[in-house]
Design brief:
The chain is mostly helical. Helices cover 42% and strands 6% of the residues. The two termini are 23 Å apart.
Length: 62
């Protein structure tokens, strides 16, 4: 498991520091675009909207 909020913050920070908004992939997408898609997926938004949640509830003790 991961801390999705911490991972999102890491992606956003790396994108800003490395200027990924300027780094093109095959002249159509930037690395920042890819990071944003990953972030939306972690937040169950965008193309991932309606998919299973990334948050799993803890088992309740019996």
């Amino acid at each position: 498991m991961i801390d999705a909020d911490a991972f999102i913050a890491t992606l956003e920070d790396a994108s800003k520091r490395q200027k990924y908004k300027e780094l093109l992939i095959d002249n159509c997408l930037t690395v920042d675009d890819v990071f944003k898609a990953i972030i939306e997926s972690l937040q169950n938004k965008g193309l991932a909207e309606g998919d299973a949640s990334t948050i799993i509830e803890a088992d309740k003790g019996k």
